[in-house]
Amino acid sequence: MKKYGKIIIILGLLLIFSVIAINVFNDKSMVIDKMVQDLASNLVRDNLTPIVKVITWCGDSLCMIIGTILVLVFVKKKKIGLSVLINLLVIAILNFVLKLIWMRPRPELDMLIYEDGFSFPSGHSMVSMAFYGYLIYLIYTYVDNRKVKWPLLIFLMLIILLIGFSRIYLGVHYASDVIGGFCFSIVYLFIYIKMAKKYI
User: Fold this and answer.
1) How far, in Å, are 101, 108, 115, 177 from residue 118 at the CA level?
2) Taking a C-beta distance cutoff of 8 angstroms, is the pair 122, 170 a contact?
3) pLDDT 10s digits, 59-105
4) Which domain holds residue 31?
């Protein structure tokens, strides 16, 4: 039953990603993009924007490279550190390839930060879901202290969601870029974790 549950989740996520990808390919506007962008625009405040910029930096490649180095240095089981590094490299390459396939332009909005390159799928969202999502799996599997484990898990889950929303808030991505990136990475994580289990 558990196996079928995973299959249903994977198929559902692939369906969502496919629907978004087809609409992007056909250059069709999506209702969810306007709805979420309107919501994000109404939340923009001068005192909130610096906080959102810090959150979005947590999805930046430099931040995750630093995180990977910390894992490599402080985690005794070196195979775990290596699996974190490989995970980051693979998902970054996949995002680069997907962006080249769809070549979606960035939103024509007043961006609160400078970003270039293509828009779909969101690199910050896709890579952070894979990177922090894998850390969530490792913490859930290997950390026994519940007082440390659950606050860390909740914190990382919130960071992933906030990074995604920060990209819309800052005007550098559509909601569909973020959702598409999340969906792809969750499916990727199912596969990567299954493969990594054999070696760590």
Assistant:
1) 10, 12, 9, 10
2) no
3) 999 999 999 999 999 998 999 999 999 999 999 999 999 999 999 99
4) 2-196
